[in-house]
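Summary for the lay section of the report: proteins are chains of building blocks that fold into shapes. Here we show the chain for Cell division protein FtsA and then a coded description of the shape we predicted for it.
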Amino acid sequence: MKDIYAVLDIGSATVKLLVGEVVSANINILFSKKMTSHGIRKGKIESMPTVVSEIKTLLDEASAALGATITKVALCIPSFHAHIYQSDGITKVNSPSDQITSDDVVRALKLSRRFERDDNEEVISVIPTLYQLDTKVMREIPIGQKSASLKAESLVITTKKKLLYSYISAVEKAGVEVLDITINAYACAKEAFDAVYLQEGAILIDIGYKTSTVAFFEGGYLKYIAQAGVGGYDLTKKIATSWQIPMDRAEVYKVKYGTCDYHIGDEDIIHTTRNQDKETHYTQRDLAEVLSEGVKDIMEVIKTKIDIINDGRSYETVIVGGGGELPDIEKVSSVVLESAVRTYRPDTIGARDMSFVSCLGMMYYLNDRSRILGKMDPSLILPDISSTMSIRFKGLTKSKPIHSDKKNKSRFSKVIENFFSEED
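The coded shape description reads as follows.
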């Protein structure tokens, strides 16, 4: 049975679905598509029927393209209301020979979620960062090692219960189970950063539609996360205001001609306004000037979030997210943030789009989980055909009310309930 997983990323601007086959450390993309989101604002579901319909549309198209029904999805949810904690859990190793098993690791991780937090918070991710055995410390999963006790230091991510349960409800109303969950910021980091950066220090800037997430990683932990109320929408609005044109026209110009490079398109007229007998022509260079000013404004706001963790050191800084799809945005950002900034675009065939970074990272996240929990059930089982290449080709070319906390908590998939429920 192949390790094929479907990842669903539900955001305020777009809903993304990616189906991939995990082969060693690589991902073969079998299907990927995104569509505009209409039912979510600032990380909250405002129209459940709309969100459910959009999820079903993507799932149905993927199932039709792949010739198999998707039954489970891993879920990336917005980082908007996330909180992060460092915790640890200590357990006695149950094996008579003191040999650590996956059960011991899971038990230690479950115990690490026992700490005081607000009643309206729910744990969505418990991520091990360090293991302490009797005689040594390890970052790798210590299954098979000998020790009388095991301490697991963990990154624990929570979000608001009502928000989490609404996302789970939307997915299950669309007819599929939730396989696992994490937030966009952590999933993006799994794809965009090498492990060494997550240890030494790295900053992730995820530019969304109306909000952007700033996340700081160090020592394997997600140590800081903040939201900035700026995003790609502000760039569109900047064009519309400067040129006195409708927002939809401004968005078209941004997507089709947008760049922060002042040295191109000086003679390329892309828009003309007429006021009585006067005509005003706007070139691609004019657009670049407007967008560069817009990016400066966005990065000034983001800089106020980064300054909170600024200790004088220079960190690897990466821009991801659909709002970052603008040539040379990293150059303007580097000037404002006073540090080297790069954009990250996946090079995985079938997902070479900055908005798919979180989906790809979630695939690696699932791979890490399977090393602890054991082999997970796949999201779908492909029909018996000669090779996955034909399916991959087919998939890539296919054109086409919130309940109470108690009731919703029972809606967790078996894997999530097993992993995150506390020890008796």
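Put simply, here is one thing we learned. Residues 32 and 351 are 7 Å apart (CA to CA).
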